[in-house]
Amino acid sequence: MHRIPVGIFGASGYAGRELCALVNAHPQLRLEYATANAQRGETTVLGGQEVTFVATEDAPVNQAELVFSALPHGASAAWVAVARGEGLRAIDLSSDLRPGHTTEDVPYGLTEVARERLRDAPVIANPGCYPTAILLSLVPLLARGLVKAGSTIVLDAASGVTGAGNSPKAELMFAEVSENYRAYAVGNEHRHLPEMRFLVGSYGTDADLLFTPHLLPVARGILATVTVQLSQEIDNPLQLWHEHFAGERFIEISEKLPTLRDVVHRNAVRISVRKAHGLRAPTLIVLSAIDNLVKGAAGQAVQNANVCLGLPEAMGLPL
Amino acid sequence: MHRIPVGIFGASGYAGRELCALVNAHPQLRLEYATANAQRGETTVLGGQEVTFVATEDAPVNQAELVFSALPHGASAAWVAVARGEGLRAIDLSSDLRPGHTTEDVPYGLTEVARERLRDAPVIANPGCYPTAILLSLVPLLARGLVKAGSTIVLDAASGVTGAGNSPKAELMFAEVSENYRAYAVGNEHRHLPEMRFLVGSYGTDADLLFTPHLLPVARGILATVTVQLSQEIDNPLQLWHEHFAGERFIEISEKLPTLRDVVHRNAVRISVRKAHGLRAPTLIVLSAIDNLVKGAAGQAVQNANVCLGLPEAMGLPL
Amino acid sequence: MHRIPVGIFGASGYAGRELCALVNAHPQLRLEYATANAQRGETTVLGGQEVTFVATEDAPVNQAELVFSALPHGASAAWVAVARGEGLRAIDLSSDLRPGHTTEDVPYGLTEVARERLRDAPVIANPGCYPTAILLSLVPLLARGLVKAGSTIVLDAASGVTGAGNSPKAELMFAEVSENYRAYAVGNEHRHLPEMRFLVGSYGTDADLLFTPHLLPVARGILATVTVQLSQEIDNPLQLWHEHFAGERFIEISEKLPTLRDVVHRNAVRISVRKAHGLRAPTLIVLSAIDNLVKGAAGQAVQNANVCLGLPEAMGLPL
Amino acid sequence: MHRIPVGIFGASGYAGRELCALVNAHPQLRLEYATANAQRGETTVLGGQEVTFVATEDAPVNQAELVFSALPHGASAAWVAVARGEGLRAIDLSSDLRPGHTTEDVPYGLTEVARERLRDAPVIANPGCYPTAILLSLVPLLARGLVKAGSTIVLDAASGVTGAGNSPKAELMFAEVSENYRAYAVGNEHRHLPEMRFLVGSYGTDADLLFTPHLLPVARGILATVTVQLSQEIDNPLQLWHEHFAGERFIEISEKLPTLRDVVHRNAVRISVRKAHGLRAPTLIVLSAIDNLVKGAAGQAVQNANVCLGLPEAMGLPL
């Protein structure tokens, strides 16, 4: 059976390795090359098959039909352009082509929101991990115009350390992270804010966003705690999410509050919602959990590849 | 040298054991009895000295001059009343005597705020762990009337598992907590909310509180992330905290964001603050870290005992 | 397509839940019932399908063709007997039917060693988790008579907390286990020793075993460190394991030392070996890692079910 | 009051920082300088006081009376020689001056064993962390000639990650260490072996040593599991350790098996012992726990400084 040949740029980071594993386990994709400059020549087993990294400049780019780029921010766009010049489709996991980071009009691949724009798209900007968890928790409210005008949506979220990559850094050593917890990029300083502002704004709301990320002593997973003031009371908020995401296989709405263990190693978002008691302003707290490396990166990238290649959307994705 | 005899009710939990250790290491206090019904007869070393638990009903209550009660909520108030009937001072670590839980007018022992009311007080309600971290981060704004009228203060906080006590529960087992993270009591359902509302309200603000606690895979420590809208812009917010808490030995204000490792095993609150960029409403994010068992429980209780007994406030407390 | 109906006794523990998940994901098995007395009536999702526990006494035992029992030691044998009385095949994950615990001659299901005896077997005693890791690391030496006569084989091993079950116990709480490590059952007191003595002895060696287990602050995984004196020098010891286990899909021999992360969530044993330098007695250190819930329990049980039912041995097993 | 001025070479690693904290908290020592080439100019709070690192070549070496060197192996001996040339006493925490690494006759500072040789010693080789835990567990047997002639003592031990230093390395990142466990330096390859062989041999036994270290997912602590064959049966082995170490303040002998949590942040060794049942050769398993940074490094160094300076041995040490 013919499998579609796929390349991966920047395959040695956590997201890149997860991509290698997913592509190797995918019934219709075949890993043609995986690049990693510092690890060129190294062989490792990912998804049950051996992968040998090559330097990006040595990759046989045009032997693939689609390329995933998990290169670092700043380095990715140029290689995506090379691939597109060779006629490949490209899915960019860096922030280079996301809204707010480029003037180019590239579809923003939050799959459940943008699905129709992604079919046959030559290039897709894969969302950041935090935005994936946060935006999917907000879209049902945004689509109905239920966010209070002029309000600030408070986005507190916490991520496992793989979100920070696998380059050795002092602040990511076990002895610094274990039994510890801290916020970072406080005051709206995080790179993921522009794409969230863009998507929220695209629904016509004028609400502001305030995003405070935190570093958890876990390897994988993001939990977002989203506090949002409403334009009106909602009787049964959970029902709203159920209706909006009816039929979505990767979005799990539940009365039970989500935990990281519910979603790690799966291409799933799990969402729950509670009304805030005792406030004058009608307010919801939406909780949303994902695996930052799967639905927050490599899983959603493969989901987007499936959509743009016309394959079944769930093909090769762990549920 | 004479040491003041002290009793501890409910000494076998995490806060109770920390109290035993602090009292045993305190140069002016002497542990007269430590009660624990289920562990009666057991001997353990705490603070370098052996402690043998007795049943609460068997304790020689009146041989102490002051009693700490770390009994469970609901069971504590009655034993505090017994101790007071015998002429002892009492410091209650349960919520029974805190604002919102009783009609009795008991001083609320957030030491740095209530110090003068605590001198010679016959009974003190020791604050909850979350309120200690959260309220100390807000007081400088509240005292100057800088919180925006009608706004909601968003209180997201995360605690280590010792905050949930040491009774075996399925959801606190290592295999459930490690590599996991979740919110709980979402929607303003937490027992610590009334005391926070009371203290915030006592400053004359009408702001609402929305409190969302989370469970961290760490043993000790609380980090609070407090988002607060201001009635006016503040040029140098950190300066406000420096000024308000000038001379306070247990409050550490820093430009660097606080982490749990900065404060564990110490009777300290570490606070930092950032302005939110890109919002129309002037907004601050205040970060505050404590050890839930020290400044959030046993340490603050000893600090309060020092104040009410006329001892140096920092005596016997780890810094 | 016909699937073979399967029952699970004692399905609510860690091994039982792993069994439910594996059976639900198995292409030729169908979960007919799953029993759990304390959790009767509860529904949970395992292996992508909902499972509702029933009381063991209410289970439609004879509607299955094969039953796995993950009931506690002491309670399991009687229910296995009930199932056999109804004509079912049975695989017992408890120690009740293992060598040294019964006088009955039940095949001991260390698959790679006993495969031929397991085909069509009416009942199989599934090995303990520690013995699985330890025995597979020793068999190549035992089979060649290379263990020094009269020596003591030192078996130090460390396990994650799921090996101790999911009943809430004080010593398994997160706050006790994290940042901690300890030995237990020291001095040859562990329940898994008889089956190891039996299997080692069956190869005709008179070597003694000394087994010291330890509790690791991880959820899953066992690493065994086996020190064994040889009857003669071996030039290339790794080659011995390669040869002995040639063609075995679930046994991975590598020069690189095994880690828990190499094997968790997989039905694999990973083994490496080193010569001890500077000793007069020729001595090897064999390192062996498994997931205690997969190859050490539920995975090997399904592997054994595949063998005894005549299915492909690797069917439905995660690699 | 006069305090003895002390310098620290290599003060920015984990052991160096622990030394700074201990010296700053010591009632009779004063930190005169602390060197760290890469961190020169950085200021940090250690032991409640600010420490500003200087380059080692810029340190006012002769303004101290004693220097601790926590420089890396290979770099330390030369700076210790410089300090001795200036007339300072020196305590070297590296392996450079330990038995087996130098031909110089430097006292090996396992305090409880070598105390008399350390008084007024101009230079002391501070033991490695593993040897401290292991040797103290063996000395009572060695001193009585109870180790079986010609036997191999099996030394399995596990350490927290701070034992590997605080330079960023891929294999010490949180995402690699958490939920993981592995052996390393297997086959008697560890740098700590020569000093253990030396000390064991100094008691006249001809027993061989086989040392297998492991890496634990904890920040601090070592547990050693020592299996030793005896020349004769011992009725009450624990009594032997009690007698041998009678009066030692930092050695805790207990029936209860030691855990890391028993000893972290304390200058203590906790030891227990069990007889092995069911073996022909009389065999003991000795368990021994320390904090690798305290009794295994900085704490024992200060203990040695106290001895060599004629101060009370326990001064300034956390118990």
Explain what you see.
The structure is a homotetramer of 319-residue chains. Chain A is α/β, with parallel strands linked by helices and 319 residues long. Chain A has two domains: 4-127 and 296-309, NAD(P)-binding Rossmann-like Domain (Rossmann fold); 129-292, 2-Layer Sandwich (Dihydrodipicolinate Reductase, domain 2). Helix content of chain A is 26%, strand content 24%. The first copy, chain A, contains eight helices and 14 strands. In chain A, the strands form three sheets. In chain A, strands 9-10-8-11-14-13-12 form a seven-stranded mixed beta sheet. A five-stranded parallel beta sheet of chain A has the order 2-1-5-6-7, sandwiched between helices. In chain A, strands 3-4 form a two-stranded antiparallel sheet. In chain A, helix 1 packs across helix 8 and helix 4 (129-143) runs parallel beside helix 6 (193-201). Chain A is globular, with a radius of gyration of 19 Å. The mean pLDDT of chain A is 96. The interface between A and B is large, with 50 and 50 residues.
Key features of this structure:
homotetramer, alpha/beta, Rossmann fold, Dihydrodipicolinate Reductase, domain 2, 7-stranded mixed β-sheet, 5-stranded parallel β-sheet, 8 helices, 14 strands, about 25% strand, globular
Tell me about the biggest sheet of chain A? 7 strands, mixed
The share of residues in extended strands of chain A comes to 15-25%
**What ranges of chain A have pLDDT less than 50 throughout 5 or more consecutive residues?**
none
Termini separation of chain A: 25 Å
| Main CATH class of the largest domain in chain A | Alpha Beta
> Any idea what the CATH superfamily of the largest domain in chain A is called?
Dihydrodipicolinate Reductase, domain 2
Helix content of chain A: 25-40%
Name the assembly state: homotetramer
The helix-strand sequence of chain A is EHEEEEHEHEHEHEHEEHEEEH
Biggest interface and residues each: A-B, 50 and 50 residues
Cα radius of gyration of chain A in angstroms: 19 Å
